[in-house]
Design goal:
mainly alpha, single chain, globular, about 0% strand, 13 helices
Length: about 350
Amino acid sequence: MMVEAGAGLAGAAAQRNLRRFRSRVLMVAAGLAGVIVLALWCTTIGASGLGMREVAAILAHKLGASLPDHLKPSDVTVVSHLRLPRIAMAILGGAALGAAGTVMQGVTRNPLVSPYTLGISAAAAFGASLAIIFGFGQSAGGQWLIVASAFVFALACAVVVFGAGLRVGTSPETVILTGIALMYLFMAGTATIQFLASEEQLASVVHWTFGSLTRAGWPAVVAMAVVSLVSWPFFFRHAWSLNAIASGGDDFARSLGVPVERVRFVLCIVAVLLTSTVISFTGVIGFVGLVAPHMARMMIGTDHRLLLPFSAIVGAWLLLAADAAGRLLFAPTVLPVGITVAYLGVPVFLHLVMRSRGRAGA
């Protein structure tokens, strides 16, 4: 009888877990639908006055349908070369920063870790500033040289941070402290460049460090999509290992057969590659990688099989909404998304914190 009762309790618990997992899968699907709706609405924002119907007609025209008489070729250019790449970069960039932040917080077991606090954003800003002050932006293909310089310095920072960690056993503390030290070093380097730059160079450097989606074009979107397609399989493959490391620590994960050092190294390198690509094209966006994982964790729990895609969805939502707010609040002036994302995300984040604390105290 006791055996049957135990089996019954275990079966009921398994059913509850299955129902909880299914409800959270539905939440991920609802979040994805929300991103699609928000993206469609964002295609109508702009001075040209194109609504959803006009945008749909232009998209149909790009697929082969004839263009309605009331639309001009310039309208097609506005939608296909300005709005759509910007929206695509907001989705891909926000998703990448959200997922990369979740991975970095998981492998280091530190909720304050993000691409910004590990020095990667500061290194990218220094690389871009260096390219600007040497006049690369004035040459043919100069924008790509700035992007390449930002990418190289971001990767170099990551190599130093995780190389130092590997040298002494890939400990999370070493990785975090090395990242913080390098963040201050690169910030000092960027400040020095700003001090020495001419007025024109200073304006370019400052504008780059704000973080903006105005530089997004289809080549950048394609590059971002390729890196994302390469990176995501690594995240999903190691989701269980990430659960073990984040929930129980290194010794617990090793007892389950997880090769902790190898998993941590691979995931960090992939997360850094993803982050570096985003920052190289957009400039410094420091808020999404830190807060999107927290917001996702409060809503969907700590299972990385769902937390990773939901963090990506929250990151995409944050960047899309922040860019829309930046284009609408002071139109026709456009505020950089690196600024508005904090104004939008902090109240939402504080609301979630207060609500979760209220539930915990009830």
